[in-house]
Structures are given as C-alpha cells and as structure tokens.
Specification:
The protein is mostly helical. Helices cover 51% and strands 1% of the residues. It binds zinc ion (2 copies).
Length: 427
C-alpha cells in the first residue's frame, strides 16, 4: 500500500475470544459480540451490514432479508460450507481482519463430512460462563460447544446445557436480539449455576466423554496451524488395509468408507481413534508412518485396559519417563500416545502434569506449522501443474477436470487449493 492512506474498517475488528485455547470463539458468537460492540441488535447488524454483501444466491438460500430462515440455518455459519465462507468473507471485509476462519470448522472441511457434526441449538457450560462473568471477562460461546460430540466441558467436567434454566427454552445459534451468555427469550444470564438442576451439577463425566472433549479441543486448537490433511483419510485407510489385520466391524466400516474416498463423519473418526488408542490430532497431524506404527503396534485399546490404568501410579517414575520421552524430540508424541507408552490414562497426565502437557502441545504446534507450510506449497504445485497440463492440451480447466487428472477427491475441500486455482486461472 502506498500514499500513507490508512485503512479504517467499517466495523470494530474484535479479536476472537479464547485464542490459543481449545475454547476459541465461534463465528456466530463473534457476530453477536460485534453487534454488542456497536450497540445494535444482531438482526440490525445482519440486515444493514452483512446481507447487502453476501449476494443474491445466498439470500435466496436463507430466505431473503434476515428472517427466521437465516436464524434456523445459523449453525452452518460455524461450519465449512458456502454459508460459513460467505459470512466469514463478509465479516473479514467489514472488520479488516484476515484470520477469522479459526472461528469456523473450515480447517476441518478437507477431511470431515459435516453429517451430524453440529448442534442446531446453542449449548454452553454454565461454569465457564459463570467464571468469565465473575472475572469480568467478555462472555462468549466457544466453537467446540457447537459440536454434537462435545458433551461435557473438559475444564469443569460438567455436562453441557442447552436449555435456559429459567424458562426452559432452547435457542438457535443466532437470533435477532441474541446476547452471548444470555437467554434470548427471558434474558436470563445462563451462567447462574444455582438455577440448574442439582442432578446436573453432580454429574460425573465418563472417561469417554472427557477423552472426546479433550480431543475435540485439541483438534480445534491444532487445526489452524496444522495441515487440514489432504487425502489423509484415504492414506490412513490404505495403510491400515495394507497391514491386513483383523479389524472389528466398526473400525472396518470406517476404514472402508475412507478407502473409497468418502469423507468420514467426526463421530466415525472418534470411534476409530479410540479403537486404535490414538488421538484425533494425531490422526490428522502426525506423520503417516508414525501414526500407523503407533496404531498397529498398540492395537485396539479395550476398555478393560483403560480401567486397569486406575491402579496406583508412581508419580516420580512417570515424571522421569515423560522427560525422557519428550527431551530431544522436535515433534513429541501426543499426550494420548505418551500416556499409552507410560501405561497411565491420558486424563492422569492432564491432571498431574498440566505444565508438561502444555509444553508438548506448544512443541507439536510449532512443528505442525512447518509441516503445514510445506504441504500448502505442495497443494499449490499440484493445482498449478494440473492447470498447466490441461491448458496445454487446449482445455479450460475446471475444478472437476483437475480432480480427475490428479486423482485427489478431496483437493478442493482445501481452502488453499481453491486459492491456488483462482490464482492460476487469473495469472
Ligand atoms: Zn466449563
Ligand atoms: Zn430463558
């Protein structure tokens, strides 16, 4: 940019809450915060600022100007379909920001089928809301809360709630007068713990619920930095099929589906990872050879094995072994794999060694960035090459031609591939 002209954005550029944690704010919640920052209702913000920009096609889909149709479909704004992307582009344009895709599941679009991925209604942890309110922190709603499989808050081990403790109503991800952390019907603050049923506050989260919750948080935390792995499900499936191991029917179904080039659902991948005792972020981010070695060596992890981990653990010995495991390795094992090597539950590591767990996660993130940059470069080369080859045989290359030529069914679910395609076609 030249001439010293300073660019002002049309709307306040709010930084999403919870950055760098598994509880990063969702796009719908960020839209809500943005409305509040301008002292207008969500409905007004959408009709005055968003809808003029998002185009006729999208307006037809959601039923013209802001109305019930949009609010009903609002959960999709946190996903990876065109509705999410169109609103994201608009939010970024209006606020002059360029990294808000972390408030959506766009990074996962390359490897997940969105069937059953999202809740249609808001869901929250009352304890998180209460804590933020007490600390006078801005209230917000986390992206991970919108996922169907996230059933308990990992920090509070508390059940997620989805109906107002006062009026009992549920609400959609966005509504005309919504405020983060409040019921749109009766205006009740949703972090008022005393109003909830006792049975809910005494809730004892199961090991599986906590495992799923921590894995989903890790996925959201890592996805922005890590490779939204192109062809990953296909590669994993082929490697495991090549091992020719006896598999239980559920794992087999997932693998066969992936081997056919169909995207698995999040629930399937979770089952798969639990079956092989690997973490979700390993599935997507760990180098393939290492992942398959881990999965095959350890074999299916049965529940009985997990329960036996509850026996008394020698903390000193575990601590020493952890240090051995992570020292000297640029890309340490994930917490799940580490726990398995050490013969303890991952929950135990999260609870007893929070600072080491955080260090592992930092190291893995830094390394993932390097891998990510290399893969992005590779994607770009693949697309550029394909465009060049198709052009030199006298064709105007379409996305479908490129998929066919490269044999990569997931290629254009990668944001980077779409960008490279646009660049190649313009250049
Ligand atoms: Zn919580
Ligand atoms: Zn209410």
């Amino acid at each position: 940019m030249s001439g010293g002209a300073r660019k002002y954005s049309r709307l306040y550029p709010l930084v999403p809450q919870g950055l760098g944690t598994g509880l990063v704010q969702s796009q719908t919640s960020l839209i809500c915060s943005t409305a509040a920052a301008h002292s207008v209702y969500v409905g007004k913000l959408l009709s005055a600022e968003f809808l003029p920009g998002i185009g006729k096609y999208q307006q037809d889909r959601i039923g013209g100007p802001v109305n019930a149709g949009l609010y009903k479909a609002a959960h999709a704004l946190n996903g990876f379909g065109t509705l999410a992307i169109d609103f994201l582009e608009e939010l970024q344009r209006l606020t002059g920001q360029n990294n808000l895709w972390i408030t959506t599941m766009i990074p996962s679009g390359a490897f997940l089928n969105d069937h059953g991925l999202f809740r249609r209604e808001r869901s929250w942890c009352p304890h998180c809301l209460a804590e933020w309110a007490e600390g006078r922190q801005p209230l917000y709603e986390a992206l991970v809360w919108t996922l169907q499989n996230y059933e308990v808050c990992f920090r509070h081990r508390a059940k997620m709630q989805n109906s107002c403790p006062r009026c009992g109503k549920t609400s959609s991800m966005l509504s005309a007068k919504m405020r983060n952390g409040y019921c749109p019907s009766c205006k009740q603050h949703l972090g008022q713990i005393s109003l909830y049923n006792n049975s809910d506050s005494d809730y004892r989260a199961s090991e599986k619920e906590l495992w799923v919750a921590s894995n989903l948080e890790e996925l959201i935390l890592m996805a922005p930095d890590s490779d939204a792995c192109l062809d990953r499900p296909l590669d994993v499936a082929n490697m495991i099929l090549a091992q020719d191991k006896a598999l239980d029917p559920q794992a087999k179904e997932v693998i066969q589906r992936m081997a056919l080039g169909k995207l698995p659902t999040l629930a399937m991948v979770l089952e798969f990872c639990r079956h092989f005792g690997i973490s979700l972020s390993d599935f997507f981010c760990q180098p393939l050879e290492r992942l398959v070695v881990n999965a095959v060596e350890s074999g299916p992890v049965g529940l009985s094995k997990r329960v036996s981990n509850r026996r008394k653990v020698d903390r000193e010995a575990v601590s020493e072994k952890i240090m051995q495991q992570i020292s000297g390795s640029a890309f340490p094992e994930s917490v799940t794999v580490l726990a398995k090597i050490l013969g303890v539950s991952s929950l135990y590591l999260y609870q007893e060694f929070p600072e080491i767990v955080a260090r592992i996660s930092d190291r893995r993130k830094a390394q993932s960035k390097v891998i990510q940059a290399a893969k992005e470069q590779k994607i770009k080369e693949i697309v550029f090459n394909a465009v060049w080859r198709l052009r030199s045989s006298g064709l105007v290359p379409t996305a479908r031609d490129i998929v066919k030529l490269t044999g990569k069914p997931f290629l254009f679910q990668q944001v980077k591939a779409v960008e490279a395609y646009k660049e190649a076609m313009c250049g």
